[in-house]
């Protein structure tokens, strides 16, 4: 390889960027990695102990994502505050259609897990402190140009700018920084005319480690078990889909009125809603980039594809893509090739593309199918949910998608073994 300041620059040190950095140290340790992150980072800022906040934002991890974190040697830390999803209940609010998944049916301890984003980030930071990964923080990647060594990346550090040469730049800073567009990538956006309201809620009945996906006339609603990893509690993580007018109305309500509106929409499967925490929200848009790679640069995570949260597939899809990319980088290092070689990056895209296309289609089709209120369509989807619950083969396929074990997954230390079903 030609000389450069670092082999791989990762723009963004969030969950996707930090996971990628850690995976590269495990799978391709010959590569030097530099992470550029906009927020300041300090080992002194990491707490000695972690106390979960009621208002903490959370992420749903599929079983397949747990397997990846096990391979990276991180699961033992993450699992300390990972609430298992042992059951999934999918239903059409006010209608008879429903399907149920149970982890025991597939000889698994859980179908997935729910954990606070901050806890997952702290676990990644602690693990990365023990590696040779270099950090530029606070700093921003503001531009990139090709050069003899690969790419020359412009960094903004305070009021100063500097340049760093690398073999490859990975854009992992989400879709809102503008770096993706500045580098010439053309994302495609499809708005759903909906917003996701996110909050933690308490209910009179225990969640019994059950995740609920409720499709209502106003849009899908998810309720994920949250809190203790070992004792079924009364706290759930809510993802509530609302149009602009409804969102404005709900945000203006008192907490008690929010609980009443939520009760009306969700029903009584968790008993009475007794508390709702801090509400955050964001507009829902399906964003994809048809060609997320070019010589010396690749988009990953939300910078490459952002999904509707209806099926909780976003971060799990990103994680599988990261491992596919890491495996290609490992092969490149073994062959003495640059990780920014377009053939390497194009091969990554070819391998990951079927997974993200299927996942996008799966999530988008759920919105379209359950977004119709016409009686014939509603009757057909109710029959489909009942049929899914009764047909083992169809249900197994649905379970594999929910568990994140249907996509391509790179495995450390040897070829992938068949996922236990």
Q: What topology does this entry show?
A:
Elements: E1 6-11, H1 15-27, E2 33-36, E3 58-62, H2 63-71, H3 75-78, E4 83-85, E5 87-92, E6 98-102, E7 112-116, H4 117-128, E8 134-136, E9 140-147, E10 150-157, E11 160-171, H5 179-182, E12 188-203, E13 210-216, E14 219-226, E15 235-242, H6 244-252, H7 255-266, E16 273-276, E17 280-288, E18 293-294, E19 297-299, E20 305-306, H8 314-334, H9 342-370, H10 375-390, H11 392-403
3D architecture notes:
- With 421 residues, the protein is of the alpha+beta class.
- The chain has a single domain, classed as FAD/NAD(P)-binding domain, CATH 3.50.50.60.
- It has 11 helices and 20 strands.
- Strands 5, 6, 12, 13, 14, 15, 16, 17 and 20 form a 9-stranded mixed β-sheet that branches. Strands 1, 2, 8, 9, 10, 11, 18 and 19 form an 8-stranded mixed β-sheet that branches.
- Strand 5 (87-92) and strand 6 (98-102) form a beta hairpin.
- Helix 10 packs across helix 11 (392-403).
- The protein starts with 5 loop residues before the first strand and ends in an 18-residue tail after the last helix.
- Its cofactor is FAD.
- It comes from Marinobacter salexigens.
- InterPro entries: FAD-bd (IPR002938), UbiH/COQ6 (IPR010971), UbiH/COQ6_monooxygenase (IPR051205).
